What we know:
- There is one protein chain.
- The chain is an alpha/beta fold.
- The longest helix is centred in the middle third of the chain and has 24 residues.
- The relative contact order is 0.16.
- Strands 3, 4, 5, 6, 7, 14 and 15 form a 7-stranded mixed beta sheet that branches.
- It contains 10 helices and 15 strands.
Amino acid sequence: MFSAILIDKDESGQRVSQTSIDDASLPEGDVTIDVEYSTLNYKDALAITGKSPIVRKFPLVPGIDVAGVVTESSHADWSAGDRVVLNGWGVGESHSGGFAQRARVNGDWLVPLPSAFTSRQAMAIGTAGYTASLCVDALLKFGVTPDQGEVLVTGATGGVGSVAIALLTKAGFTVAASTGKTSEVEYLQKLGATTVVDRAELAEKGKPLQKERWAAVVDSVGSHTLANAAAQTRYGGAVAACGLAQGMDFPATVAPLILRGVSLLGVDSVMAPKPRRLAAWDRLARDLDPAVLDDIASEVALDGVIAAASDLMDGKVRGRIVIDVNR
């Protein structure tokens, strides 16, 4: 038996508890992992609080991120003792995930833990940081260069935003950070932001075309924020969109796209193919100072996950929450 957070549902609704399960409770898969750390993402918080129908199969262990050591494998790529990381692939939605001391998964979903990071540091990065890396890769492949001007990062104190600021700064960009948390200016500047923008400037309905400000944007917020960011992007610029913290609507016009040639780059982390994942983790290992993770991440034990999920939904969390599943 081992500890896990379990989400179940019956006629009275959804229930979330910390409990004990055994290997027979784990889903099918060709790799079994002793989980060392996981991390709490926005999607995990939605699942635990029940504020969005994230969970598609009950009962289920949430946690879309896993870092740990392979204990059993019938997959050709993995052997007992390998240190691995998993992000997405429906884990924590339709396949039990990382909020337990053991996990069983499809070996095709795994990537090797970069030698630059410990399991805890990898989970301080988690899906949020890996998504940020995908966004930076998308902008660089598009052709955005530091000499073209500032890059805006929305949702800047969140996991995606925090890592995006650090990676963009390392790549030589000047970064503007949008946040509603005025107390976190010093934190954002420490990550590398040179300008802090009040999120209120972006959060309400704005004009279809606005003053050109940004060479590019990394947006994890969606809704009016994404629409305004696109309306403020310079001619020929690009917006990498990866989140919906404000909403999944996009109340915009095509004006920035057809009058300024702005490109909207959709970034998906859940089903991204393995080569793209490996490239994202390579960038993180190369460009993200592990010391930065101490500023980005806080830690809770497994018994603190449910409360932390509520805090995340209430906007009380800065950066990343790492889950030590073994305490």
